[in-house]
Amino acid sequence: MADVEKFETCWGPGDALMAAYHDTEWGVPCHDDHELFERLLLEGFQAGLSWSTILNKRENFRRAFDGWDPEVVAAYDEAKVAELLEDPGIVRNRLKVAGAIRNARAFLAIRDEHRSFDRYIWGFTGGVPLDRPAPTSWKDVPAKTTESDEMSRALQKAGFTFVGSTICYAFMQSIGMVNDHLVLCPARNTVPFEPSRGGEKARQATF
Q1: How far apart are the C-alpha atoms of 24 and 3, rounded to whole Å?
Q2: CA of 18: how far to CAs of 7, 125, 134, in Å?
Q3: Architecture of 28-191+198-205 per CATH?
Q4: Which residue of 19, 138, 152, 172 has the fewest CB atoms within a 10 Å radius of its CB?
Q5: SS3 of the chain
Q6: Residue ranges per domain, the chain?
Q7: For residue 105, what pLDDT is reported?
Q8: Tens-digit pLDDT profile for residues 9-63
């Protein structure tokens, strides 16, 4: 069996799929509600597993969860849950599947209240990425922060599950609320500059 080619990422050697995600998505500011919903739920499914596992199942998740349409997911019934639990292409965990449905409903409630989920979630960093020194090694990257603690508490209060502070910080990294690419990582300098969008702190309305 031929060796799989490995590529360098901030997390160590990875396959082509992992490298593409690292180079083009991770740490890039995301403001699309549909994509934010997918990223948040995938982070929840990743709990206790490797990100590589989730990334390799990503297209299966999109198929199984109707393209991650939050309105469709929020309406899933027991028959759909049973169908998902029989799908070998995804993570077949009853609590996580039920959590995805619960989170879709909470997501829609926040979106309706704040006009967009993007407007709400980016409020935890004042509407722009956190200004932090570039880490020199992965040991310098925290597992959670004050901002992820606040986000976790607020999301749980809003009805979300699988949103502990560590998961929230991984989500923040994923959607570019913080650029944790290492100082010598070529991808760090390709992350686009994110100008201020008014600095509104949506979380002020939640506490």
Answers
A1: 24
A2: 8, 27, 21
A3: Orthogonal Bundle (1.10)
A4: 138
A5: CCCCCCEEECCEEECHHHHHHHHHCCCCCCCCHHHHHHHHHHHHHHCCCCHHHHHHCHHHHHHHCHHHCHHHHHCCCHHHHHHHHCCCCCCCCHHHHHHHHHHHHHHHHHHHHHCCHHHHHHHHHCCCCCCCCCCCCHHHCCCCCHHHHHHHHHHHHCCCCCCCHHHHHHHHHHCCCCCCCCCCCHHHHHCCCCCCCCCCCHHHHCC
A6: 28-191+198-205
A7: 98
A8: 999 999 999 999 999 999 999 999 999 999 999 999 999 999 999 999 999 999 9
Q: What is the pTM of this model?
A: 0.92
Q: What does the block give as tokens for 93?
A: 């965990």
Token duo for residue 138: 């992965």
Provide the annotated active-site residues: 21, 43, 51
- Which tokens belong to 85? 């639990």
